[in-house]
Each structure stands twice: as structure tokens, then as C-alpha cells.
Design a protein that fits this description.
five-stranded antiparallel β-sheet, 18% helix, 15 strands, alpha+beta, 195 residues, elongated, 50% strand, 3 helices
Length: 195
Amino acid sequence: MKVKKILYITVILMAVMGIFLWLSGLFGLWFNGMAFLANNTKQFEENGHSVDGRYSLKVDLSNFESNIGRDIYNDGEHRIYVSWIQKTQNGEYDIRFRSSGQYSLSGATLISGLHHETISDHFFTTSTTAKLTVEYNEKKYNAQVTGQCGLNYKDGDCFSFSFFLSDEPNKEIVEDTGIVELTITDLYKNIWRKK
């Protein structure tokens, strides 16, 4: 009899705790992170602004793995770092950056190459704001945006670029390139605050 009573009390307490966690938003935050706040347009509003500055990183194109995890931007709370890099058969380089920020039940911030914008209660859009230039042998090349992901990670997103180290793509394929300097500009600070 006593064991049944303890079991019933335990089940009731767990149910009450589950309801509390659900209503408080903690479940949504644990499972979906920043996306939970961005999609919760009834409780959170989205705004943000451009981030001034030029941020540079030297990468070694002769050793792709050595660049993974290296920061091109880091202010202590927000980080943008290399998550993937490769060379294609036609001599083009592809690089993907991962952005991570801060989130809690009171709101979230993310500095990224992407602007995540709420259009209405049920529609969202993501646009690339960042620009990337590559300097090699004292020449600068503009990288082209090739991809983006939404808030697919609990703490952020990702975006990618591709570039050639030649004014005439597909003509000159540079072997053993070595070190190039990447410079990123026009970052965007996404902000979600409780209404």
C-alpha cells in the first residue's frame, strides 16, 4: 500500500514538473535551442543590425584539416569559425563557416553572415549579408556565396562560399597553394528578445 502511494505521488510530481517545463519553454529550448525562440513569434520579437568591421584569417590550402575550428570572428560570446573546406576538381575552393551565439529563455543573439528575418507569424527568410575576399600572391579575389543553412544548430547556423585563385576560373589551377588570407565583412547581429 505504501509503495503504491509513493509511486502515485512520484508520477503526479513528474507530470507537474513536465507541465511546468513545457509551459516555461525549457523543453523547446533544450530540444531546438535558438530556433525555438526565433519560431516563437508570440513571445519573442526579432531585430538586429549590421556589424561593422573587417575580420581576417589566414588559412592553409595545402592542409585543409589544420583550418577546421579556427575563428574568423570571436568576441567572447559569438563565434564564426571554419567548419569545412575542400578543393573541387576544377580548381575551385569551397569553405563553410559555422556561427554560434548565446540563447536562454530571455532571448538570443547570433552574429553571422546571415540575417534571419521573421516576415509574419508563420513565414521566415534568411539572406546572406556577408562578403568574403581572398588574398593570394598580393591579388584579391571575391568569393561567391554558395550556401546557407537556417538555425539548424541549437546555437546557430552555417554559410558557405567558393572561390578561385585566378582571374580566369578553370584556366589556371594552382597546385600547392599554401597560405591565403580570408577577409569577411558585412556580418549581421541577429537578436531575439522577449516581448
